[in-house]
Write a structure and sequence with these properties.
The chain is 55% helix and 13% strand. The protein is an alpha/beta fold.
């Protein structure tokens, strides 16, 4: 089974691309979805609340907006959060992949290159889009302020750095063209897995 790492900065459209693969019946593991589930686990809630000195919601959960305001303004804090969450996400992925029977799978995560995880995959795909387009998408999606989105983009590696590391790049500015790029890669991956 071929393992494909799919990544991209905030607002680039990696979830859109992941869904295009999903529509082709390719199993997709979305790290962010798993991370959110893990962040609701009681032992993780306590560890995160204690580490970042944040109060819990009335449901006994982490106040995600308070946590985001801390970690996206402080690289060391973001690193600390990732060191708590990401090993647990990786464990979930290892269990998930054992239950899958497919020619290839997609693992979608924002920080494959930053966490030096690219070598774990047979191929990596980077989804890109111009910075202003990404900012507008996130403002529309999350109702965030432009300043907030810019600080989140700044916390991630620049696309130019990731492009040098990726095996394939999908430029996601036009829906039809994005779909065509996914279609081509799908055929390529099926051909690789036949060999």
């Amino acid at each position: 089974m071929i393992k494909i790492g799919l990544t991209g900065g905030i607002g680039a459209g990696k979830t859109l691309v992941a869904n295009m693969f999903k529509n082709k019946n390719i199993p997709v593991f979305i790290a962010d979805v798993e991370a959110k589930k893990i962040l609701n686990d009681s032992s993780v809630v306590q560890e995160v609340a204690h580490t970042f000195n944040i109060s819990l919601t009335h449901d006994g959960l982490i106040d995600k907006s308070e946590l985001a305001s801390i970690v996206f303004k402080d690289k060391a804090a973001l690193e600390k959060l990732n060191s708590i969450i990401h090993p647990k996400v990786h464990d979930c992925f290892q269990k998930w992949i054992l239950s899958i029977d497919a020619l290839y799978i997609i693992y979608e995560a924002a920080i494959i290159f930053e966490k030096d995880r690219a070598s774990y995959f047979d191929f990596t795909i980077l989804v890109t889009a111009p910075k202003q387009v990404r900012i507008e998408r996130v403002i529309q999606r999350d109702h965030s302020s432009e300043e907030d989105v810019k600080s989140r983009i700044k916390a991630q590696w620049p696309e130019s750095k990731k492009k040098k590391l990726a095996d394939f790049v999908i430029e996601n500015t036009n829906l039809k063209q994005t779909q065509q790029q996914v279609d081509k890669l799908h055929v390529k991956f099926l051909n690789f897995s036949d060999k």
